[in-house]
Write a structure and sequence with these properties.
Helix content is 38%, strand content 14%. It has twelve helices and eight strands. Strands 1-7-8-6-2-5-3-4 form an eight-stranded mixed β-sheet. Helix 2 packs across helix 12, helix 4 runs parallel beside helix 7 and helix 8 packs across helix 11. The longest helix has 18 residues. The relative contact order is 0.21.
């Protein structure tokens, strides 16, 4: 049984040092086949500032395709550029958005982050996976958090309603992928407000879809600090690995996700960014 010794121990990881001492017992090589196993939808939670997460996904596109993935859903509004990319993997996206663009980003950071989203989309299309935008059209009147969550949830429903055999990888912010919103990043602007909005993962689970929530961390961001600090202490900052969080659900030892995610992938850490 995975993590049997830890589950039977009294160690509840009250500090990152406690977790660091046990990391060798819970880390394993990244295996997307395990993450996608029996799932219709893998919600890949990210920090939008974290371009290394997108580079990781692009590098693993073939493995993700081998899991039977048919669609790659993105937190972006529809655009002609995405339609053209789906028809021709060599299409140059230019300024086309295929992911979130933060309002406070400035060049060259904005360009680098945009290109990292484009890199994933191109890699997926080259594997025969269709890119599907599920976010609101930002040219229309303002959408609140509830309206966005409803819209994105319906965008994913539409994929399954059009193809009952679809297998979807969706790259969204971690707060959308988590089972409960507003619990991931204490002190970050907006999260207390967002906590009042039901996450799209919870909405789709209520519909009966088989969902696997995944949090990809590391890279240039230090959230969740409890886990990232433990990784550094254990000397694993430069390593790519995954952690199966499912055995800890309902136990006091919930690693860092409090039951919000089934899996975590750590990508090698780089210099932190704002």
């Amino acid at each position: 049984m995975p993590h049997k010794r830890l589950l039977e121990s009294d160690n509840t990881w009250t500090s990152s040092d406690d977790l660091a001492n046990d990391l060798d017992d819970i880390v394993q090589p990244v295996d997307y086949a395990s993450i996608f196993d029996n799932s219709q939808l893998v919600l890949i939670g990210e920090d939008h500032r974290n371009s290394p997460v997108r580079r990781h996904l692009a590098a693993h596109a073939a493995e993700i395709k081998a899991c039977g993935t048919t669609h790659y859903a993105v937190e972006s509004p529809p655009s002609p550029g995405i339609d053209l990319l789906n028809k021709d993997p060599s299409y140059e996206l230019g300024d086309t958005r295929v992911g979130v663009e933060l309002k406070y980003d400035t060049d060259p950071l904005k360009k680098e982050r945009r290109e990292s989203y484009q890199e994933v989309a191109k890699a997926m299309v080259r594997q025969g996976i269709k890119v599907v935008p599920i976010d609101v059209d930002y040219s229309l009147p303002h959408y609140g958090a509830e309206e966005r969550e409803v819209h994105m949830t319906q965008g994913l429903r539409d994929i399954f309603e059009a193809d009952e055999k679809a297998v979807v990888a969706a790259l969204v912010g971690a707060d959308h992928a988590a089972r409960n919103r507003g619990v991931l990043m204490n002190g970050v602007w907006g999260y207390k407000y967002h906590a009042r909005v039901s996450a799209l993962s919870k909405r789709l689970a209520r519909d009966g879809y088989k969902i696997s929530p995944l949090w990809v961390v590391g890279g240039v961001c230090d959230a969740p600090t409890f886990f990232i600090d433990a990784v550094r202490t254990a000397g694993l900052s430069d390593e790519e690995f995954m952690v199966d969080l499912r055995p800890f659900r309902g136990s006091e030892q919930r690693v860092f996700s409090s039951g919000n995610f089934d899996w975590a992938i750590h990508v090698p850490q780089e210099d932190m960014q704002a």
